[in-house]
Each structure stands twice: as C-alpha cells, then as structure tokens.
Write a structure and sequence with these properties.
By secondary structure, the chain is mainly alpha-helical. It has 9 helices and no strands. α3 crosses α4 (about 75-95) and α5 (about 125-140) crosses α8.
Length: about 210
C-alpha cells in the first residue's frame, strides 16, 4: 500500500475513532498492532513485557487521540508512544528486577506462520525466506538502541526523516548518522545472503 493511500486510510480511521466508533479502534489495532509489537520487542527483548507495553500504548493513544494534530503519520505517533513506554519499562526492570530473573525466550520471527507468497514456492525457497527473515531480525536486534530505532522507523515503517526526528527527539544530523551506521552494520550482517538489501527489501524481510 502506498504512503498516499496510508494517509487517506489514517485520516478516515482517525475521524471514525474520534466519533466513538469502536469498530474503527479494532481496525487500527489489527492494522498497526504488529509493527508496534516489533518496536516494543526490539527494546525490551521480552515478549510478555512487550505485549504489556503495546496494550498500554493503545490505552494511551485512544485516551489522547484528540491531541493528535496530524504533523506526522498516525503510525509514527503510535510508534513514539510505544518506544517511550518500552524505554520506561526497561528502566523500571533494570531498577527492580532481581539479578537472577531469566527473561523469556525470543519469539519466532514474525510472519513465520503466514503463507509465504513467493515465485516457485519450493521447500528450499521457503527455508531460505525464513532464514533470511530470522537473520534480519537478529541483525536488527543486535544494533545499538539508537541505530535500531532509526532504521526500523525509516526502512521498515517508512517514516520520513522529520517524523523520525520528532518521534525520537533527535536532530536531523544525528538521525542521518545513525541510519547510515545501522545500514552499514545490516549490510555486513546480511552479506552472506547476497547483495545488500535496499530499504524496500528490508521492509519485506521485517514484515514477512
């Protein structure tokens, strides 16, 4: 779906939610729940905590939806709420969690249970697609937090540079440096799978 189409859909769904349409809230959750979960999981590395953060994000978003001014995409605004809550939760965990606490195991790569729509759907191709996706998720997860947030917003969620700066509260120069470094690290990590992916390939690997 194109960015222009997304903007039209967001405008419509926002109008319905503000009018008290509960079905519109459910549509928004179905549409954007997955990318928000991915962001929270990248920060927290714990599926249970990430799920709690996403639920809190929706509660906060719907309670403050009238304050959204449309200066960025609705998804970008939601992502900002999720990232801030995830960071707060991580700080809280570091302060109060016992040292012996064992975090839950990482979840399987998102989308593995979805049908893979590829040309010449062979077992070998399916295995390769899954392996690339797992490798991509691991590579993104290993990035420093600042680089990880920027590359996911820019190359996976397709946020603009100005939206990314607004969500992360960083300068454009910092955003560009972090994005450049993150892409360089990802190219190196994914080199064994062939030529380095462009941003559209990154989105496909992340969304499955």
């Amino acid at each position: 779906m194109t960015r222009k189409h997304d903007a039209r859909w967001e405008s419509t769904i926002l109008r319905r939610i503000r009018a008290g349409d509960r079905a519109a809230q459910r549509e928004l959750i179905l549409r954007y729940g997955r990318p928000l979960s991915r962001q929270a999981l990248l920060v927290l590395k714990n599926p249970a905590l990430a799920e709690d953060v996403v639920q809190e994000t929706w509660v906060t978003a719907f309670a403050s939806i009238d304050r959204f001014r449309g200066q960025s995409r609705l998804l970008t605004w939601l992502t900002g709420i999720a990232i801030n809550r995830a960071k707060s939760e991580r700080r809280r965990e570091r302060r109060f969690a016992p040292v012996s606490r064992v975090r839950g195991p990482p979840t399987p790569a998102e989308g593995e249970d979805l049908e893979l729509v590829v040309h010449e759907l062979t077992p070998e191709r399916i295995l390769m697609e899954r392996e690339v996706r797992r490798h991509f998720d691991a590579a993104v997860g290993s990035l420093p937090e600042g680089q990880r947030s920027v590359v996911v917003l820019r190359d996976v969620e397709e946020s603009s540079s100005s939206e990314t700066c607004r969500v992360l509260d960083i300068s454009d120069a910092a955003q560009r440096v972090r994005l450049c470094r993150a892409r360089a690290r990802l190219r190196l990590a994914l080199a064994e799978f062939g030529p380095p992916p462009d941003p559209s390939a990154a989105r496909e690997a992340a969304t499955g």
